[in-house]
Protein backbone atom coordinates (compact mmCIF):
# COMPACT_ATOMS: atom_id res chain seq x y z
CA UNK A 1 0.00 0.00 0.00
CA UNK A 2 1.95 3.04 -1.27
CA UNK A 3 1.78 6.18 0.91
CA UNK A 4 3.35 9.62 1.04
CA UNK A 5 3.62 12.17 3.84
CA UNK A 6 3.54 15.94 3.32
CA UNK A 7 4.34 18.22 6.24
CA UNK A 8 1.85 21.08 6.21
CA UNK A 9 3.57 22.77 9.14
CA UNK A 10 5.83 21.61 12.01
CA UNK A 11 2.89 20.03 13.83
CA UNK A 12 0.55 18.84 11.06
CA UNK A 13 1.00 16.32 8.28
CA UNK A 14 -1.03 15.13 5.33
CA UNK A 15 -0.83 11.44 4.48
CA UNK A 16 -1.88 10.17 1.05
CA UNK A 17 -2.54 6.44 1.04
CA UNK A 18 -3.34 4.19 -1.93
CA UNK A 19 -5.09 0.85 -1.46
CA UNK A 20 -4.85 -1.37 -4.53
CA UNK A 21 -7.92 -3.53 -4.98
CA UNK A 22 -5.78 -6.63 -4.41
CA UNK A 23 -5.23 -5.33 -0.86
CA UNK A 24 -8.85 -4.21 -0.50
CA UNK A 25 -10.23 -7.63 -1.55
CA UNK A 26 -10.14 -9.22 1.95
CA UNK A 27 -12.21 -6.29 3.27
CA UNK A 28 -14.64 -6.64 0.36
CA UNK A 29 -15.03 -10.35 1.04
CA UNK A 30 -15.72 -9.62 4.70
CA UNK A 31 -18.29 -6.92 3.81
CA UNK A 32 -20.14 -9.26 1.42
CA UNK A 33 -20.19 -12.01 4.05
CA UNK A 34 -21.53 -9.72 6.78
CA UNK A 35 -24.29 -8.43 4.50
CA UNK A 36 -25.16 -11.97 3.38
CA UNK A 37 -25.44 -13.05 7.02
CA UNK A 38 -27.84 -10.20 7.82
CA UNK A 39 -30.27 -10.18 4.88
CA UNK A 40 -32.98 -12.56 3.77
CA UNK A 41 -33.48 -12.91 0.02
CA UNK A 42 -36.00 -15.43 -1.42
CA UNK A 43 -34.31 -18.31 -3.16
CA UNK A 44 -31.08 -18.07 -1.20
CA UNK A 45 -30.10 -19.50 2.16
CA UNK A 46 -29.02 -16.95 4.76
CA UNK A 47 -25.30 -16.37 4.49
CA UNK A 48 -25.14 -17.84 0.98
CA UNK A 49 -26.29 -14.83 -1.04
CA UNK A 50 -23.93 -14.32 -4.03
CA UNK A 51 -22.01 -11.04 -4.30
CA UNK A 52 -23.68 -10.22 -7.62
CA UNK A 53 -27.14 -10.45 -6.03
CA UNK A 54 -26.05 -8.20 -3.16
CA UNK A 55 -24.72 -5.68 -5.69
CA UNK A 56 -28.02 -5.81 -7.54
CA UNK A 57 -30.18 -5.48 -4.44
CA UNK A 58 -28.15 -2.98 -2.37
CA UNK A 59 -25.65 -1.46 -4.78
CA UNK A 60 -21.96 -2.02 -5.19
CA UNK A 61 -21.29 1.35 -3.57
CA UNK A 62 -22.67 0.20 -0.20
CA UNK A 63 -20.27 -2.73 -0.11
CA UNK A 64 -17.32 -0.62 -1.22
CA UNK A 65 -18.03 1.95 1.50
CA UNK A 66 -18.20 -0.77 4.14
CA UNK A 67 -14.91 -2.31 2.97
CA UNK A 68 -13.12 1.05 2.77
CA UNK A 69 -14.29 2.04 6.25
CA UNK A 70 -12.80 -1.22 7.55
CA UNK A 71 -9.55 -0.80 5.63
CA UNK A 72 -8.75 2.82 6.51
CA UNK A 73 -7.82 2.39 10.22
CA UNK A 74 -5.43 -0.49 9.51
CA UNK A 75 -3.81 1.12 6.46
CA UNK A 76 -3.55 4.45 8.31
CA UNK A 77 -1.66 2.77 11.16
CA UNK A 78 0.70 1.15 8.65
CA UNK A 79 1.34 4.55 7.05
CA UNK A 80 2.09 6.41 10.29
CA UNK A 81 4.49 3.64 11.31
CA UNK A 82 6.20 3.75 7.92
CA UNK A 83 6.71 7.52 8.06
CA UNK A 84 7.49 7.54 11.82
CA UNK A 85 4.64 9.90 12.62
CA UNK A 86 3.30 10.35 16.15
CA UNK A 87 -0.33 11.56 15.94
CA UNK A 88 -1.73 13.65 18.79
CA UNK A 89 -5.34 13.69 17.57
CA UNK A 90 -7.78 11.85 15.36
CA UNK A 91 -7.12 12.28 11.61
CA UNK A 92 -9.40 14.11 9.19
CA UNK A 93 -9.96 11.56 6.41
CA UNK A 94 -11.12 12.30 2.88
CA UNK A 95 -11.59 9.76 0.03
CA UNK A 96 -9.88 11.37 -2.98
CA UNK A 97 -10.04 8.56 -5.55
CA UNK A 98 -12.24 5.52 -5.99
CA UNK A 99 -11.73 3.53 -9.17
CA UNK A 100 -13.64 0.29 -8.82
CA UNK A 101 -11.52 -2.82 -9.28
CA UNK A 102 -8.40 -0.69 -9.53
CA UNK A 103 -7.48 1.56 -6.61
CA UNK A 104 -8.78 3.55 -3.64
CA UNK A 105 -6.94 6.65 -2.47
CA UNK A 106 -7.55 8.74 0.63
CA UNK A 107 -5.84 11.56 2.49
CA UNK A 108 -5.54 11.87 6.26
CA UNK A 109 -4.58 15.19 7.84
CA UNK A 110 -3.54 14.92 11.46
CA UNK A 111 -1.85 16.94 14.22
CA UNK A 112 1.48 15.35 15.10
CA UNK A 113 4.00 15.53 17.88
CA UNK A 114 6.61 18.22 17.18
CA UNK A 115 10.21 17.24 16.56
CA UNK A 116 12.92 18.58 18.86
CA UNK A 117 16.15 17.56 20.52
CA UNK A 118 16.17 16.60 24.17
CA UNK A 119 18.55 18.62 26.33
CA UNK A 120 21.59 17.25 28.14
CA UNK A 121 19.94 16.23 31.38
CA UNK A 122 23.32 16.07 33.14
CA UNK A 123 23.38 19.86 32.87
CA UNK A 124 19.90 20.40 34.32
CA UNK A 125 19.99 21.88 37.83
CA UNK A 126 17.29 22.46 40.41
CA UNK A 127 17.18 23.66 44.01
CA UNK A 128 14.59 22.69 46.62
CA UNK A 129 14.01 23.54 50.26
CA UNK A 130 16.02 21.58 52.80
CA UNK A 131 14.15 18.91 54.74
CA UNK A 132 13.24 20.27 58.14
CA UNK A 133 12.79 18.44 61.40
CA UNK A 134 10.00 15.88 61.50
CA UNK A 135 9.39 16.49 65.23
CA UNK A 136 6.72 19.12 64.61
CA UNK A 137 4.88 16.83 62.19
CA UNK A 138 5.02 13.99 64.73
CA UNK A 139 3.49 16.25 67.40
CA UNK A 140 0.76 17.35 64.98
CA UNK A 141 -0.13 13.72 64.25
CA UNK A 142 -0.20 12.85 67.94
CA UNK A 143 -2.46 15.84 68.61
CA UNK A 144 -4.83 14.77 65.84
CA UNK A 145 -4.97 11.27 67.32
CA UNK A 146 -5.70 12.72 70.77
CA UNK A 147 -8.56 14.78 69.36
CA UNK A 148 -9.93 11.75 67.51
CA UNK A 149 -10.12 9.78 70.75
CA UNK A 150 -11.14 12.72 72.96
CA UNK A 151 -14.21 12.61 75.19
CA UNK A 152 -16.47 15.56 75.97
CA UNK A 153 -18.47 16.70 78.98
CA UNK A 154 -20.98 19.52 79.42
CA UNK A 155 -19.72 22.60 81.27
CA UNK A 156 -21.50 25.68 82.61
CA UNK A 157 -18.54 28.06 82.41
CA UNK A 158 -17.71 30.52 79.66
CA UNK A 159 -16.53 28.86 76.49
CA UNK A 160 -12.86 28.97 75.55
CA UNK A 161 -10.57 27.80 72.78
CA UNK A 162 -10.89 24.06 72.12
CA UNK A 163 -14.44 23.78 73.49
CA UNK A 164 -17.09 22.05 71.42
CA UNK A 165 -20.19 24.20 70.96
CA UNK A 166 -23.63 23.44 69.60
CA UNK A 167 -24.98 26.49 67.78
CA UNK A 168 -28.09 27.85 66.11
CA UNK A 169 -27.50 30.45 63.39
CA UNK A 170 -29.97 32.94 61.92
CA UNK A 171 -29.11 35.46 59.23
CA UNK A 172 -31.10 38.60 58.40
CA UNK A 173 -30.69 41.34 55.83
CA UNK A 174 -32.43 44.67 56.22
CA UNK A 175 -34.45 43.09 59.02
CA UNK A 176 -35.71 40.24 56.84
CA UNK A 177 -34.76 36.66 57.78
CA UNK A 178 -32.92 34.67 55.09
CA UNK A 179 -34.35 31.14 55.12
CA UNK A 180 -31.44 29.46 53.35
CA UNK A 181 -28.98 31.09 55.76
CA UNK A 182 -30.51 29.62 58.91
CA UNK A 183 -29.25 26.48 60.62
CA UNK A 184 -29.70 24.65 63.91
CA UNK A 185 -27.61 22.15 65.84
CA UNK A 186 -24.28 23.04 64.24
CA UNK A 187 -21.23 21.57 65.99
CA UNK A 188 -18.34 24.00 66.18
CA UNK A 189 -14.92 23.86 67.85
CA UNK A 190 -13.62 27.24 68.99
CA UNK A 191 -10.36 27.96 67.21
CA UNK A 192 -11.21 25.84 64.17
CA UNK A 193 -13.01 28.36 61.98
CA UNK A 194 -12.01 27.02 58.55
CA UNK A 195 -14.89 27.32 56.13
CA UNK A 196 -17.09 29.06 58.70
CA UNK A 197 -18.44 32.60 58.81
CA UNK A 198 -15.81 35.23 59.41
CA UNK A 199 -16.27 36.63 62.91
CA UNK A 200 -18.03 33.55 64.32
CA UNK A 201 -15.08 32.46 66.41
CA UNK A 202 -14.75 35.86 68.07
CA UNK A 203 -18.53 36.12 68.64
CA UNK A 204 -18.98 32.80 70.46
CA UNK A 205 -15.77 32.74 72.50
CA UNK A 206 -16.67 33.50 76.12
CA UNK A 207 -20.37 32.68 75.78
CA UNK A 208 -22.18 30.28 78.10
CA UNK A 209 -24.99 27.85 77.23
CA UNK A 210 -28.14 29.81 76.32
CA UNK A 211 -26.35 33.07 75.54
CA UNK A 212 -26.72 34.93 72.25
CA UNK A 213 -24.37 37.11 70.20
CA UNK A 214 -24.78 39.10 67.00
CA UNK A 215 -22.24 40.12 64.38
CA UNK A 216 -22.03 41.06 60.73
CA UNK A 217 -20.41 38.76 58.19
CA UNK A 218 -20.34 37.79 54.51
CA UNK A 219 -22.38 34.66 53.74
CA UNK A 220 -20.38 31.75 52.33
CA UNK A 221 -23.20 29.60 50.92
CA UNK A 222 -26.71 29.54 49.54
CA UNK A 223 -28.53 31.96 47.28
CA UNK A 224 -27.07 34.95 49.13
CA UNK A 225 -23.45 33.80 48.94
CA UNK A 226 -21.08 36.76 49.00
CA UNK A 227 -23.68 39.13 50.49
CA UNK A 228 -23.26 40.82 53.86
CA UNK A 229 -25.83 39.92 56.52
CA UNK A 230 -26.51 40.29 60.24
CA UNK A 231 -25.90 37.00 62.06
CA UNK A 232 -27.51 35.95 65.34
CA UNK A 233 -25.80 32.99 66.99
CA UNK A 234 -27.24 31.10 69.97
CA UNK A 235 -25.08 28.73 72.01
CA UNK A 236 -27.28 25.77 72.99
CA UNK A 237 -24.51 23.71 74.61
CA UNK A 238 -20.86 24.04 75.69
CA UNK A 239 -18.69 20.95 76.05
CA UNK A 240 -15.12 20.62 77.18
CA UNK A 241 -12.83 18.22 75.37
CA UNK A 242 -10.86 15.82 77.52
CA UNK A 243 -7.83 14.68 75.57
CA UNK A 244 -6.24 11.34 76.50
CA UNK A 245 -2.78 11.43 78.04
CA UNK A 246 0.08 10.39 75.77
CA UNK A 247 1.12 7.25 77.62
CA UNK A 248 1.49 3.52 77.05
CA UNK A 249 -2.26 2.99 77.41
CA UNK A 250 -2.91 5.55 74.66
CA UNK A 251 -0.30 3.90 72.44
CA UNK A 252 -2.00 0.52 72.85
CA UNK A 253 -5.39 2.10 72.09
CA UNK A 254 -4.48 3.74 68.81
CA UNK A 255 -1.67 1.55 67.48
CA UNK A 256 -0.13 -1.90 67.41
CA UNK A 257 2.60 -0.85 69.85
CA UNK A 258 2.85 -1.49 73.57
CA UNK A 259 4.76 1.64 74.56
CA UNK A 260 4.49 5.32 73.69
CA UNK A 261 8.17 5.34 72.69
CA UNK A 262 7.55 2.66 70.06
CA UNK A 263 4.48 4.53 68.80
CA UNK A 264 6.42 7.79 68.50
CA UNK A 265 9.27 6.07 66.68
CA UNK A 266 6.83 4.64 64.16
CA UNK A 267 5.19 8.05 63.70
CA UNK A 268 8.63 9.60 63.28
CA UNK A 269 9.53 7.15 60.52
CA UNK A 270 6.28 7.96 58.71
CA UNK A 271 6.85 11.69 59.14
CA UNK A 272 10.40 11.43 57.79
CA UNK A 273 9.14 9.53 54.76
CA UNK A 274 6.49 12.17 54.16
CA UNK A 275 8.84 15.17 54.34
CA UNK A 276 11.32 13.33 52.13
CA UNK A 277 8.59 12.42 49.63
CA UNK A 278 7.36 16.04 49.63
CA UNK A 279 10.89 17.26 48.95
CA UNK A 280 11.37 14.82 46.08
CA UNK A 281 7.99 15.68 44.57
CA UNK A 282 9.08 19.32 44.68
CA UNK A 283 12.41 18.33 43.10
CA UNK A 284 10.66 16.60 40.21
CA UNK A 285 8.51 19.68 39.61
CA UNK A 286 11.58 21.94 39.65
CA UNK A 287 13.48 19.66 37.26
CA UNK A 288 10.57 19.71 34.81
CA UNK A 289 10.39 23.51 35.06
CA UNK A 290 14.12 23.73 34.28
CA UNK A 291 13.73 21.41 31.27
CA UNK A 292 10.79 23.39 29.90
CA UNK A 293 13.01 26.48 29.93
CA UNK A 294 15.67 24.64 27.90
CA UNK A 295 13.40 23.08 25.26
CA UNK A 296 11.37 25.15 22.83
CA UNK A 297 8.91 23.67 20.34
CA UNK A 298 5.58 24.50 18.77
CA UNK A 299 2.46 22.74 20.00
CA UNK A 300 -0.25 21.58 17.57
CA UNK A 301 -2.77 24.41 17.50
CA UNK A 302 -5.84 22.18 17.51
CA UNK A 303 -4.53 19.89 20.26
CA UNK A 304 -3.62 22.84 22.49
CA UNK A 305 -7.00 24.49 21.89
CA UNK A 306 -8.85 21.31 22.89
CA UNK A 307 -6.61 20.84 25.93
CA UNK A 308 -7.23 24.39 27.20
CA UNK A 309 -10.99 24.13 26.61
CA UNK A 310 -11.17 20.78 28.42
CA UNK A 311 -9.16 22.12 31.36
CA UNK A 312 -11.36 25.21 31.64
CA UNK A 313 -14.51 23.10 31.51
CA UNK A 314 -13.10 20.83 34.23
CA UNK A 315 -12.27 23.77 36.52
CA UNK A 316 -15.70 25.35 35.98
CA UNK A 317 -17.34 21.98 36.71
CA UNK A 318 -15.41 21.62 39.98
CA UNK A 319 -16.27 25.17 41.07
CA UNK A 320 -19.91 24.66 40.11
CA UNK A 321 -20.11 21.58 42.34
CA UNK A 322 -19.11 23.82 45.23
CA UNK A 323 -21.62 26.47 44.19
CA UNK A 324 -18.85 28.89 43.23
CA UNK A 325 -18.07 31.16 40.32
CA UNK A 326 -14.47 32.09 39.51
CA UNK A 327 -15.07 35.53 41.04
CA UNK A 328 -16.33 34.02 44.30
CA UNK A 329 -13.46 31.54 44.38
CA UNK A 330 -10.91 34.35 44.07
CA UNK A 331 -12.66 36.30 46.83
CA UNK A 332 -12.53 33.36 49.24
CA UNK A 333 -9.00 32.13 48.53
CA UNK A 334 -5.59 33.70 48.66
CA UNK A 335 -4.66 32.94 45.07
CA UNK A 336 -1.09 34.18 44.73
CA UNK A 337 -0.87 34.03 40.94
CA UNK A 338 -4.19 35.72 40.14
CA UNK A 339 -6.31 38.55 41.46
CA UNK A 340 -8.71 38.92 38.52
CA UNK A 341 -10.70 36.43 36.46
CA UNK A 342 -8.52 37.18 33.43
CA UNK A 343 -5.34 36.52 35.40
CA UNK A 344 -6.84 33.31 36.82
CA UNK A 345 -7.62 31.88 33.39
CA UNK A 346 -4.29 33.05 32.01
CA UNK A 347 -2.54 31.12 34.78
CA UNK A 348 -4.73 28.05 34.15
CA UNK A 349 -3.86 28.20 30.44
CA UNK A 350 -0.15 28.45 31.23
CA UNK A 351 -0.30 25.44 33.56
CA UNK A 352 -2.20 23.40 30.97
CA UNK A 353 0.26 24.38 28.23
CA UNK A 354 3.27 23.51 30.40
CA UNK A 355 1.68 20.18 31.36
CA UNK A 356 1.15 19.28 27.69
CA UNK A 357 4.72 20.27 26.82
CA UNK A 358 6.04 18.21 29.75
CA UNK A 359 4.05 15.14 28.60
CA UNK A 360 5.53 15.40 25.12
CA UNK A 361 9.09 15.68 26.47
CA UNK A 362 8.60 12.64 28.71
CA UNK A 363 7.04 10.64 25.86
CA UNK A 364 10.00 11.41 23.59
CA UNK A 365 12.46 10.43 26.34
CA UNK A 366 10.58 7.18 26.99
CA UNK A 367 10.68 6.24 23.31
CA UNK A 368 14.32 7.18 22.76
CA UNK A 369 15.28 5.12 25.81
CA UNK A 370 12.93 2.20 25.05
CA UNK A 371 11.08 2.42 28.35
CA UNK A 372 8.44 -0.29 28.57
CA UNK A 373 5.65 -0.92 31.05
CA UNK A 374 5.46 -4.34 32.65
CA UNK A 375 2.33 -6.11 33.83
CA UNK A 376 3.68 -5.82 37.38
CA UNK A 377 3.93 -2.04 37.08
CA UNK A 378 0.36 -1.80 35.80
CA UNK A 379 -0.80 -4.02 38.66
CA UNK A 380 0.99 -1.77 41.17
CA UNK A 381 -0.72 1.30 39.71
CA UNK A 382 -4.11 -0.41 39.99
CA UNK A 383 -3.46 -1.26 43.65
CA UNK A 384 -2.37 2.32 44.38
CA UNK A 385 -5.49 3.73 42.71
CA UNK A 386 -7.70 1.34 44.68
CA UNK A 387 -5.99 2.31 47.93
CA UNK A 388 -6.35 6.04 47.21
CA UNK A 389 -10.01 5.86 46.17
CA UNK A 390 -11.09 3.32 48.78
CA UNK A 391 -12.19 0.79 46.16
CA UNK A 392 -10.97 -2.71 45.32
CA UNK A 393 -8.37 -3.56 42.65
CA UNK A 394 -11.08 -5.41 40.73
CA UNK A 395 -13.24 -2.27 40.72
CA UNK A 396 -10.32 -0.32 39.22
CA UNK A 397 -9.73 -3.01 36.59
CA UNK A 398 -13.42 -2.99 35.64
CA UNK A 399 -13.34 0.80 35.36
CA UNK A 400 -10.18 0.67 33.25
CA UNK A 401 -11.65 -1.87 30.83
CA UNK A 402 -15.06 -0.23 30.62
CA UNK A 403 -13.63 3.22 29.76
CA UNK A 404 -10.58 1.99 27.80
CA UNK A 405 -8.16 3.67 30.22
CA UNK A 406 -5.36 1.14 29.74
CA UNK A 407 -3.40 3.16 27.12
CA UNK A 408 -3.76 6.28 29.28
CA UNK A 409 -2.61 4.49 32.44
CA UNK A 410 0.29 2.84 30.63
CA UNK A 411 1.36 6.27 29.36
CA UNK A 412 1.17 7.59 32.92
CA UNK A 413 3.52 4.86 34.13
CA UNK A 414 5.97 5.42 31.26
CA UNK A 415 6.07 9.14 31.95
CA UNK A 416 6.69 8.48 35.63
CA UNK A 417 9.60 6.20 34.77
CA UNK A 418 10.95 8.76 32.31
CA UNK A 419 10.78 11.55 34.89
CA UNK A 420 12.48 9.38 37.51
CA UNK A 421 15.40 8.69 35.17
CA UNK A 422 15.66 12.33 34.11
CA UNK A 423 15.72 13.50 37.73
CA UNK A 424 18.39 10.92 38.55
CA UNK A 425 20.56 12.39 35.77
CA UNK A 426 19.94 16.01 36.81
CA UNK A 427 21.72 17.81 39.63
CA UNK A 428 19.31 18.51 42.48
CA UNK A 429 20.44 20.22 45.68
CA UNK A 430 18.67 21.66 48.67
CA UNK A 431 19.06 25.22 49.93
CA UNK A 432 21.86 24.08 52.22
CA UNK A 433 23.85 22.69 49.29
CA UNK A 434 23.17 19.00 50.01
CA UNK A 435 22.54 16.64 47.10
CA UNK A 436 18.96 15.29 46.92
CA UNK A 437 18.58 11.65 45.90
CA UNK A 438 15.39 11.68 43.85
CA UNK A 439 15.49 7.90 43.40
CA UNK A 440 14.22 7.50 46.97
CA UNK A 441 10.75 8.53 45.83
CA UNK A 442 10.43 5.61 43.47
CA UNK A 443 11.70 3.23 46.15
CA UNK A 444 9.05 4.50 48.56
CA UNK A 445 6.33 4.15 45.92
CA UNK A 446 7.39 0.60 45.12
CA UNK A 447 7.39 -0.32 48.81
CA UNK A 448 3.92 1.13 49.28
CA UNK A 449 2.63 -0.73 46.23
CA UNK A 450 4.09 -4.02 47.48
CA UNK A 451 2.48 -3.52 50.89
CA UNK A 452 -0.88 -2.79 49.24
CA UNK A 453 -0.54 -5.90 47.08
CA UNK A 454 0.08 -8.05 50.12
Short overview:
With about 450 residues, this protein is α+β, with helices and mostly antiparallel strands. The chain is about 50% helix and about 20% strand.
Helix-strand blueprint:
Blueprint: E1 3-9, E2 12-20, H1 21-38, H2 51-58, H3 60-82, E3 92-99, E4 103-111, E5 125-128, H4 135-148, E6 151-154, E7 164-173, E8 176-177, E9 183-189, H5 200-204, E10 212-218, E11 228-242, H6 248-254, H7 260-294, H8 301-321, H9 326-332, H10 341-368, H11 375-389, H12 393-402, H13 406-425, E12 427-430, H14 439-453
Parallel strand pairs: 5-12
Antiparallel strand pairs: 1-2, 2-4, 3-4, 6-11, 7-8, 7-9, 7-11, 10-11
Helix pairs in contact: 1-3, 2-3, 4-7, 6-7, 7-13, 7-14, 8-10, 10-13, 11-12, 11-14
Spell out the key features of this protein.
Chitinase A, domain 3; Trigger factor, domain 2; alpha+beta; 4-stranded antiparallel sheet; 454 residues; Alpha-Beta Plaits; 14 helices; 6-stranded antiparallel sheet
Summarize the structure in words.
By secondary structure, the chain is α+β, with helices and mostly antiparallel strands. The protein folds into 3 domains: 3-111, Alpha-Beta Plaits; 151-242, Chitinase A, domain 3; 256-453, Trigger factor, C-terminal domain (Trigger factor, domain 2). It is built from 14 helices and 12 strands. The strands form 3 sheets. Strands 6, 7, 8, 9, 10 and 11 form a 6-stranded antiparallel sheet that branches. The protein has a 4-stranded antiparallel sheet with strand order 1-2-4-3. A hairpin with a 2-residue loop joins strand 1 and strand 2 (12-20). The chain is elongated. The model is unreliable at 441-454 (pLDDT under 50).
Amino acid sequence: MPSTAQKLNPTRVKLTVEIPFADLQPYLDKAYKEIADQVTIPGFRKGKVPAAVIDQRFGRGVVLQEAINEAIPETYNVAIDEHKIYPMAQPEVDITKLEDKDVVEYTAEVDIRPEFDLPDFDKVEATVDAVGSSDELVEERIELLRQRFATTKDVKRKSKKGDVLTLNLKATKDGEELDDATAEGITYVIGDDKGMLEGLDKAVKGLKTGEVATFTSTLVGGAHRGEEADIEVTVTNVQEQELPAVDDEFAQLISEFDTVEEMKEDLRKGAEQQVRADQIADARDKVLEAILEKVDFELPEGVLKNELEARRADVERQLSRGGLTVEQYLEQTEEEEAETVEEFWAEMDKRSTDALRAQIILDVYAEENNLDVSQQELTELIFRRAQQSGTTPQDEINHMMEHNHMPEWMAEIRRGKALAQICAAATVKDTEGNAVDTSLAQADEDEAAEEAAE
